[in-house]
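Lecture 7 notes: from sequence to structure.
We start with the chain below.
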Amino acid sequence: MSVSRKPPASTMDSMLDPRVIDPHLELVDHSSLSEDEITQVVNVLKGIRHWREAEAALSFESRNHMRLNETDMKALRFLVMSKNQKMVATPGLLAEHLNISTAATTKMLDRLTAAGHIERSVHPTDRRAVMITITEGTHEQVRETVGRSHARRFDVAARLTPDEREVVIRFLNDLSDTSNKQ
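Predicted structure tokens for the same chain:
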């Protein structure tokens, strides 16, 4: 008999419901909301959880397929953007973008070079510097996975009205701000 590692959806949903997890209103004051309003708020939270799980699964699948970690994937996305903007990418720019040390950047670049994802060459205007470019094959892989996913998300956001987008922007920014408060 196998044991499920994930609680059933109804249990997962109830973990978002203050009526279940905080029935005495110690943390969440929902006393001014009707039952329907609380249910709607819980549905928003369920939608966020569902999106985060889908995003995490896609990210894991892309990284696993390409045998990369999260920082490596971020580096490749930066190199795609650099290529698209005709910007010369250097180890220093990459380290700054990823907020990692130059030593960590060097190790990452060694890994990505060995795997055939990037190439290093002499900088076109500063012969002392190194230029990093993404290989064509890796560029296509990133474009097909991350790029297509982003395109679908863009289409969803584009279908909203300008007023709806403003509400979503405010909501997501406010939601992000809650992570910074303790």
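Points to note: The mean pLDDT is 87. The chain is about 65% helix and 5% strand.
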